[in-house]
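Schema walk-through. Below, the input block comes first and the output block second. Nothing else is stored per chain. Lengths vary across the set, and this one has 187 residues.
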Amino acid sequence: MKRALIICAVLLSACKEEAQNVSPVALTEESVGHYCQMNLLEHDGPKAQVHMKGNPGKPLYFSQVRDAIAYSRLPEQDGVILAIWVNDMGAPGATWAEPGAANWIDATTAHYVVGSSVEGGMGAPELVPFADLEKATGFAAKHGGTAMSLAAIPDTAVISPVALPGDGTTDADYSNRLKALSDKIGG
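--- output ---
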């Protein structure tokens, strides 16, 4: 009987799944963006990291907060997201050029400035996260936009097509669209 209880205890402990550590990971020279594969420390503006089930201590990094939120909302994204962390742009010492390597806040509790005049690290509109609502509204007063919760951010502020000149029906329209894309990405 005692042996059977020991065997049951061992089997139950083997079946028990340990919780994955989803603590934020500080940025280093090896931290590269999920989409661009570029060093995050070389880009201005806030960053994000997404922790996926089955990849402990190896988050997906994003050069822009907007990209991480878009990733989480894409219908094609089929992995289990356990946590999303974003830079607190109201943290002591956080600047646009150096938002911080370790000042992470939970994306679900952050206050975001949406629709401001600032661009993120990849040159697209950015969702600017703050832990403190007063700091978010102060940023919005200076740079435009509206402070809101993650749940209140509309998909159109995260996943939207890039407007390009012309309707694409002529060679000139095609050339203008290519030039606009090239100019947008710095080419």
